[in-house]
């Protein structure tokens, strides 16, 4: 036990000395916090950050406009927990305006119109909102990342979209670990026909292109949020299984395993208590790589339109919606979510390399 603790301490010290590994670790923690509490940080806290203002579509980062907010009259109880994690359902109606005046309990405003056009003039009777100051309805709103082609706040969409990319990594890696460790352990420990059958399944799965297999599973399960999570996880267990199988084959004949057999321990206990804890280093490293791969696959699926479905925010879907804007002079609409994907994938690859060095995984 003392030796185990000292090895863990040495690995931790080695990891701490890797600047990019530590930087990536804190970056991933930051993205995790932002994705979990996306609606707290997002300027648009409506469900899926889906407030559309077509009059201010495709505006540049830093764009600001005067916003008239008309409180929603829809009644609906929503718990604070629901608002915190899933956004507000009954949101106020926001209208971008260029001018307004208040006279005799009547608010007259001119709707915002781009390209020097004159917006329509409309009235609101303030008597419909008693005990509320008219000036409280009007405020300056800044869109730090600009707006997308539907006039939605791009920063809010990016923050809410981080959830899908971040959590698909966790779910996919969890599924791949459960299946991969189980199949790899059974194949290596029992050998013979069990090994032959499992290796046949592994080789068949390995031979099918990953994206094609994910698309097939997604079409079988149906389009949607959780279906993509499961589909990606079901395609990633193969690498884990091969690594676990190789490690157990080289470990199952060592002295402590032979001693455990001599003491009459069950196969289940030998695998879970004695073998697996000693081969987890390469599995941890491959899990970090799988995390990055899951994010890229989900982005590819969303780009193809079979990932998370509208109005859900997804980085891949945001690129799909705006890739043609690259040649229309507004490349940031596609570049911003693209940079988000790249930075998160890079962070997982760097932390995987750092863990590999720290745990001194060979081959």
UniProtKB/TrEMBL annotation:
Belongs to the binding-protein-dependent transport system permease family. It comes from Tamlana crocina. The keyword Nucleus does not apply. InterPro entries: BP-dependent_transpt_permease (IPR050366), MetI-like (IPR000515), MetI-like_sf (IPR035906), OppC_N (IPR025966). Residues 162-352 form the ABC transmembrane type-1 domain. It is found in: Cell membrane. The keyword 4Fe-4S does not apply. This is ABC transporter permease. It holds the Pfam family OppC_N. It is a multi-pass membrane protein. Its main location: membrane. CDD domains: TM_PBP2 (cd06261). Keywords: Cell membrane, Membrane, Transmembrane, Transmembrane helix, Transport. The chain crosses the membrane at residues 20-42, 164-190, 197-219, 225-244, 279-297, 332-355.
